[in-house]
Write a structure and sequence with these properties.
- By secondary structure, this protein is mainly alpha-helical.
- Helix 6 packs parallel to helix 10.
- Helix content is 76%, strand content 2%.
- The chain is elongated.
- The protein starts with a helix and ends in a 5-residue tail after the last helix.
- It has one domain (2-254).
- It has 10 helices and 2 strands.
- The chain has helices at residues 2-10, 13-23, 26-29, 40-59, 68-107, 125-140, 143-157, 166-177, 180-208, 214-254; strands at 113-115, 122-124.
């Protein structure tokens, strides 16, 4: 068994598997890479291609152990590093989608839900819209390049033959996860304020003109206000996603240290 593994290691196959273990989580958690629009076999081919490209850089100057137990441990550690990196990027898109969900609840769009093509789950109109817009901005701003450069940087911070500090990864994940709601509020803030003002205005009108059917007038008005403000706030949303992308990659790399 050891002789076979030694031959595989000599051909770089074992190193390729370790790189693939670190790349694979991107296709489950990271924006765009995990999109359900991309067929699973295509995502698998892309993961293999990325791993083939990164393997020479990751293996440079390193000796890969040949015993099965050590290799299994290195694969698990590679998966942890990849999960930590991909999770941080996934939280960015989760914040954008949460902003859409908040707008859906406040504007009344939550009454109608559709299938979100990006993840295959049921979502209301604004949640789906923000998911698509977030993915588009991710592409336009070169998010896939940021992701791959960040992933390449992980091999310098945590080499293939080294393990990450678990407490550092857990602490980074908790910190990033706690920022989801704050990020959603930042993205949805213009719409939330506009809808709040609209509700207050209708409350005043209902006291002045009690015979007016507020529910019949208020629902389409809130929908119109939400659509107008969402359209006006799109440049702000694009700028926020672009800035947070670089911050997310930096946070993901900052949580990785050699044990």
């Amino acid at each position: 068994m050891t002789q076979i593994l030694s031959e595989l290691a000599g051909n770089g196959l074992v190193g390729f598997i370790l790189v693939l273990a670190r790349v694979t989580p991107l296709f489950f958690l990271a924006p765009l890479f995990s999109s359900q629009i991309i067929p699973p076999h295509v995502r698998g081919l892309i993961a293999v291609g990325i791993s083939l490209g990164l393997a020479p850089v990751a293996l440079h100057g390193q000796h890969i152990p040949t015993d099965a137990l050590t290799l299994a441990g290195l694969v698990i550690e590679g998966l942890l590093v990849g999960l930590s990196f991909a999770f941080t990027l996934g939280v960015l898109m989760a914040a954008v989608e949460s902003a859409g969900s908040l707008i859906d609840v406040l504007s009344g769009f939550s009454y109608g839900s559709l299938i979100n093509p990006m993840d295959g789950h049921e979502a209301a109109v604004m949640t789906r819209f923000y998911s698509l817009v977030g993915t588009l901005i991710f592409l336009v701003t070169g998010g896939e390049a940021w992701t791959l450069r960040g992933l390449d940087r992980t091999f310098a911070l945590v080499p293939l033959t080294s393990g990450p500090r678990l407490y550092s990864i857990v602490g980074g994940a908790v910190q990033v996860f706690s920022s989801v709601f704050a990020g959603a509020l930042e993205v949805a803030a213009p719409v939330v304020v506009a809808l709040l003002i609209t509700d207050v205005a209708f409350g005043i009108v209902s006291r002045v003109v009690p015979q007016l059917n507020i529910f019949a007038v208020g629902f389409p008005t809130k929908v119109a206000v939400a659509l107008l403000v969402v359209g006006a706030a799109l440049p702000f949303t694009a700028n926020w996603i672009s800035n947070q992308l670089s911050v997310s990659v930096g946070d993901a790399l900052g949580a990785l240290h050699v044990a």
